[in-house]
Design brief:
Length: about 130
Amino acid sequence: METTGLTYTVILPTSASDVYGILLDERKHSSFTGAVAIITDVPGSSFSLYDGKYTGKVVQTIKNELIVLDFVLHHPLWHHPSCSEVSFQLKVLAPNETELTVIHKLVPVSCADIMLNNWHQDFWEPLMFYLNR
């Protein structure tokens, strides 16, 4: 299966600790997405985001610095059980300013456009709205 990758980098108006918590705290994650989130920062634990639209395992966490997930989109074009890898890299720029780089590796080419849209619709837009409220 042919794969590709997606990379995004944004500057967020909040601390790395806040970003880390928003991504890995079920209550905060659900609050920013408006959907059920089951996730923890424990490596090896399973997660389910967006009411089960995205599932996988937490691979690695370094508090306030790095989150690595094995990641699956539940979509007919995503060839199961193929996992991709998503890493969230956090870099403190100032007390309330964090650079977030998201690297999504091993995305099936058949799902690249879908994932590009989903990242914007399901993650970036709700996150920015949540942080700017």
